[in-house]
Fold each of these.
Amino acid sequence: MMRNINKLLKSKKGSTILTVVIVMVVLVLLGQAITMLTLGTLRSNVADSSNNEAYYAAESGINSAIDQLKLEVVSYYKAMGEASSSEFNVLFGSFATNINTNAQTMFVEPTLVSGSTSTTFYVGGYDSVNDVCEFNIQCISMTPDEAQYQVNATVYVKKIDISVTGGSLSVPDNAALVVGGELDLDYDSGIGINGGDVYVGSISFESTKKNKVPYSISGGDLYIDPSVGASLEDPYVFPSYSDPSMSSPNFVATTDTTINWANVPPSPVAITTLPGVQLTLDCDIDSGVIHGKGDVIVTSGSYDADLYVDGNLTLGSCDFNGDIYVRGNFNGQNAVIRGNLIVDGNITWSSGYSVGDIQAGGFVDIRDASSVCSIAAVSDIYIESVGISAGLIYSSGNITIGDCAVSAVLYSYGDLVITGGMYVEGAIFAKEDFYFQNPGPYMNMGYDPEFVKSIIDEANINLFGGGGGGGTQPTLDASIFVSQEITPVGRVN
């Protein structure tokens, strides 16, 4: 047989046949490789198509779930708005939990051409500083070929106490001092009240050293009533405000900028900045509007313009006659403000004085200054060595005050704390306790019912909206939905 093959190889005809066989083998192997490559590509395309189908199904489900959650938020606010006081407290306390449950219960998975989705709602964290609730959503899609794809979403929702309504501030007739909790007097401290009655939930003091009570009441009586605190209410709603409208500003700062006497634009000014840009003012401005969309620093000068600050405001030795609105915090030293000061954050002020009303969404801390205005704050008020004439000092929290002579009405929805000697022409109201922080100080008070009534009446117009609310009632609009995030996790099987 070998001899036959050798003969075939040596012949011309045999060489041709062998070449044909080799070519056929190569073509067969090449065809097999192309077939395998084509099948792999087809499998890859099928997998990609399956993944895409799974992703779009999950995306459709997550968007439907977000819409359902927002619908439940709006419905829940509507229910709270129609609830009685007791019902509202229950609804408000279970805000996030109930909305999440309602969304899960009412959600209907979207109808897809092929495949299905499974969506789950979860309650996330709560930002107590900004009153924002976190809602989490997970959607897993399933295609007919059993591919599964997961997409997550987070929605941040503002929790607003819409029961908070402003109203008029009312006080008991002929009341010079009202303490809803305990009037706590040390034997080294004391109070003397002339011209009005004193109402307290309870009273305690030590008199063993001096062998006498550390208080005196002239022209009025002492009433001990544990329920007297119920007569003191908190009608204050911090006022909101809108940014000024500037159709054609004559100065726009794109980077951190100082405006001084050399480059101040003509009045009336329309000065603004890009967001986050710091503006420094060191000049005089006769009129107009200034809107700093970052921090603003005023080092000196006289200003008759209104000032809006999206960041923090620092005032140095300047004279400001316009109104001031601040989204961040305010810090003033040796400043004079004759307009109103409204600050979303905290107010810290030393020296100088104010003529207009001061309102803060945070705390107020004023030292070594004078004022002829009213002060109102959502949080605590700290006052030391400050003169106040014909004003209301109002806190939804506590008031701590000392070393002052004031013609004012002090009204604390929390405690009222005395840190140093005091003379008060007016009246004091504390929802909770009244006490001296350190032993030794003495407080004298002269009560004039007509003076107190004039302070309360003016405050009801300027601070509490004429009996209709202080500032703007909380409104429900798209801003309750703070933000949302959609995160594709990927295939999960």
Amino acid sequence: MAGFADVSLGDFLEKLATPVPTPGGGTASAVAGAMAAALLGMAASVSLRKRPGEGALGEAAARAAELRRGLLELARADTEAYEAVMRAYGLPRGTPEEAEARRTAIQRALREAARVPLRTAELALEVLELAVKARDAIPEAIVSDLLVAVRLAHAAVKGGLCNVDINCRSLKDEGARAEFASRRKRIETRARKLLDQFTEAEERLASWLGEEDSNLH
């Protein structure tokens, strides 16, 4: 598949809606992460005009651009990784040798199919880290953009981890499973802690509803 940077949004959504396995949730997660990085970069760049000396904003804008490109690349890689899994399952298994070669190919493909969304979750987690660093320098007028970036990044983390889980369920390599599990737990725990740091900003944004209605949790 062509790089996702070169595909229109409409074309991507058409492909996503097609009743075939790819592109699927892992690719969608990476695209959500790229959108989060783009929004964070925009918020940081706009804020930088008002505070040109704010180092956290410059860092966030520059790194967000890198993360956006990286996540778009992972969108392509995720589709390719799962297509490799499907090809492996389609290999012949009529002889013992063929069956063994098929099992080996499936396990190799599953490791890659778990590795790619794990990397998606890691990069999306970094978007959340950047959002925390830039948060206090983002003016209230565009805090909604920051919060949307945060929610998209967290969705990308969770979506990536769901795809790690589905592939690891069939992975037989205990060493690989243990490594994926350790990294996965760390990412999920850290992402929740970072998301919680924006609860107050979300409640403040919804304060126009009134004291009783503004608690959305």
Amino acid sequence: MEECLDPFGSSIKQAEERADKPEEACGVFGIYAPGVDVAKLAYFGIFALQHRGQESAGIAVLNGNDLKIHKEMGLVSQVFDEGILGFLSGSVAVGHTRYSTTGSSKIANAQPVVSKTRLGPIVLAHNGNLVNADYLRAELVVRHHTLKSTTDSEGIVHAIGEAVDDGMDWVDGTIHALKRCQGAFSLVMGTPNALMGTRDPNGIRPLVIGELDGRYVLASETCALDNIGADYLRDVEPGELVVIREEGLKSYIWAEKAERKLCIFEMIYFARPDSVMNEESLYLYRTRLGEILAQEAPADVDLVIGVPDSGTPAAIGFAKALGIPFSEGLIKNRYVGRTFIQPTQQMREAGIRMKLNPLKDVLKGQRVAIIDDSIVRGTTSRKIIQALRDAGAKEVHMRISSPPVTHPCFYGIDTDSQDQLIAAKKTPLEIAEHIGVDSLHYLSHAGMLRATRTDETTYCSACFTGHYPISIPDGMKNSKLMLEQPVS
């Protein structure tokens, strides 16, 4: 059985104990505001992005060439206190929360990452994943760069530093380096007198621009802007570099063939439901997923529940569309985090209930539809279904507000290799039998895209289809893909 690293590098978690969800790479935040406590604003910015990464957190602050940085393993609230934030004084701040998809979970891989150049330091926070990271790192090593981590992010910042040291200015050097990068990247960068932000030519990972008292803010999601009282202005466009200085914001389009392919899982699951995409909260999109799911796969049940918290909006939409009562059937312990204390055998046998506990008096004797946003391996789903039956549910029907996940992601989501994805090996009927439900239906691919109410060609849905918008090197692809074709 495969072991997984805990936040401090110890092999204590078995594969079957991992969260049965795709896990996002990172959250990034940046602000340019001379004369303002930028470190504290960055703290509250990444605090709002904690859901995007819980392994490490960091903030770097620049005041001219003076660089101060603090980063550690752990949650934002554990890594920073008033004393540390008071030390981080300057005019430019870059913050990061990390979940590792490349590089192991250790402090050397925490961000922001730094490069020293002839023009001063540059700090960088990265969300996404390069598919040519090994090639880029090899080029840099040949050119005598010393790389201290195993992340692709360090390769990007060193590539920028190399271009600057070769005589380019910050803008030209950054663009030159970006053109060497292939894959998904939303970047926030700080230099001695500027804040910069960019997205890859497909815009797979989100990045937004906000305004606070005449100063500009960059963040992965609008919820981070809301947390500090900033107003959302617009998204950074795919293939765009924005440069923020004292005189304002300037835009540079550096990619010749930019084509929007936002990760659809950002909308289904990763981003917070109060974040805005396509000019509306993702809560509304997720309730529409549930409404369409009810049209495609109704259920003759007494009540509808969601798997908290990610399945709740779709469950509300599903219940509303069918005119069936929605109820809380599972109570989530929101204070369950990573722990070195192992549960007793009896507690392990109780399974999911440390995190989700069923309401017996709500469920007893009821025919229940339970809504979730995805099934990856099926391990958690099976435990949840058993808990509902133990609580007295008469029937349990599961509905999933996304299509079957049949392919791994190479663009910054930590999905398993294909042989670990249950929908790549089993039909929906077989999965239903495996997890113990009376019926199981997934939302269709067409329904998922229709719910966006936007151009359906502007999304990456490779984890459902296997059609990758950015070419994947054979070595990387073969490491995660099964040779045989998945079940259709």
Amino acid sequence: MAIELKNTAPWKKAIDSISSFISEGNLHFSDSGIFFKAIDPSQVVFVEFELPKAVFEKYSIEPTLVGVDLVELGRIMNRAFPEDKLTMNVTESELLLSFDGETTRNFALPLIDLNEEEINIPETKFDAKIDVNARILKEALKDASLFGSSAVFKIKNSSFTIESQGSSGNVKATVKQAKITSAKIAEKQEKQEKAQEIISKYSLNFLQSIVKEADPDKKILLEMKTDSPMKITYSIGPTNIQFRLAHMIL
């Protein structure tokens, strides 16, 4: 039984992103691929990711649940060269990883016995969706971090802004190229009523960690509702990674 993957970049990026919040977790090796779902210890970020079976050159493994140190797994994956082929296997006590390129390197990561807790995230009916270029969003968050540790996201009419303030100053960035879809705002405009404002506040530290692995040339989808968690989705190679980020009190 073994798993073979020629393009290791999506797997590496996903582990790097997840391990920013969650140091230990359970990997689900299922019939359809590798799946991960967990919430960070502070219960601020929920993450969900699946690398489907179709992206592997070989996928032959019994369905199993594997508890690992994600930080250590990330360190191992960072040693992969672009041309390396990755082979993974699971024993009773270890996750085995092999990089085969100019040299063959074998790593063994001890398994961890972790409780598998059921995670029930309430379904949220978001009021707006924002498609935004990843590079533009990352730069806006950098601007916001000059003055504060949190950012306020606002949507009004067809305008999307990110604001931050602190004792040394404040900043307001209007993201012109964002594509906003909002049924409620459209409904207000049709009735010529005062446009509804969608506004919520989030931690900049968590936001920047969430989007750090997003391809600068690709889009990030933000789904928002006033004073509610935000759903953040972007592609990693052939699949998507999703986050739910808890809001802060305005």
